[in-house]
Amino acid sequence: MNKPKILVVEDDRAVRNLITTTLETQNYQFHTAATGSESLLEAVSGRPDVILLDLGLPDMDGVEIIKKIRTWSNMPIIVVSARSEDKDKIDALDAGADDYLTKPFSVDELLARLRVALRRSRFDSQQAGEAASVFHNGDLTIDYAAGCVYREGQEIHLTPIEYKLLCLLAKNIGKVLTHNYILKEVWGSALPTDTPSLRVFMATLRKKIEKVPSQPQYIQTHVGIGYRMVRMEER
Question: Which of 65, 152, 205, 217 sees the fewest Cβ atoms within 10 Å?
Fold first, then answer.
């Protein structure tokens, strides 16, 4: 079995060494880049399975790198940055990042986020290869062809908006979707006044798919950022 290839884009030598040492102990292959231009060259030539990306690079901002890569590839990108403001996280996620880890970080959390990204990448490949029309996650099943949703084999009746929300989260399983992204995909606009409506629909969706809505398993909230569907095997 081929070892996953990770591209580490980090200009701080100490942080870069910490990450690469961690990857080496877990038997990952890795390449490194200290600038934005190097990272783009490595992304094109090396085709890594996941990119770990710092935003504060000497020659260009990491968000611009994400935007450039997203014009030709859907490879998972995990931002690892000292920027901790919600706006920075939203900008990176809206540009196409899959996840956002704030420095300082624990090695265990970094590896966990990496495993999630690799699983999503494999899932995307399987979906593309099989042109799957049925989605399974734990006790939850979506039959895209029939437009039906089941929990533990029992059909759940969703409104059109709830169904769109669930399908959007399912097709991006493991990826954090910002409020703006969800609003644009489901409603076609992203006005600030629409966010309360999104929260209401998300609450009603949870009541229907979660066994204990107050302790959701499937849909994870990232406060101030958005939502993510969790793959049950992560638990």
Answer: 152
What integer pLDDT is reported at residue 145 of this predicted model?
82
Q: Is the pLDDT of residue 114 over 60?
A: yes
* Residue linked to tokens 């409603």: 187
Place of tokens 């996941």: 50
Run of H or E including 22: helix 13-25
Indicate the domain borders of the chain.
5-124, 133-234
Residues whose CB falls within 8 Å of the CB of residue 21, separated by 6 or more in sequence, listed in order = none
Pick the CATH number of 133-234 from 3.30.830.10, 1.10.10.10, 1.20.1640.10, 1.10.1790.10: 1.10.10.10
Judge if pTM exceeds 0.85: no
Decide if 176 contacts 226 (C-beta within 8 A): yes
Tracing tokens 């706006």 back to the chain, one arrives at 87
For 80-107, what is the mean pLDDT? 93
Q: What confidence category does residue 130 fall into, taking pLDDT thresholds of 50, 70 and 90? A: very low
- CA–CA separation, 43 and 168 (whole Å): 27
pLDDT tens digit string along 52-88?
A: 999 999 999 999 999 999 988 889 999 999 998 999 9
Cα 167 from Cα 117, distance rounded (Å): 19
Residue closest to 97 by CA, chosen among 176, 35, 179, 15: 176
Q: Which residue type occupies 220?
A: Q
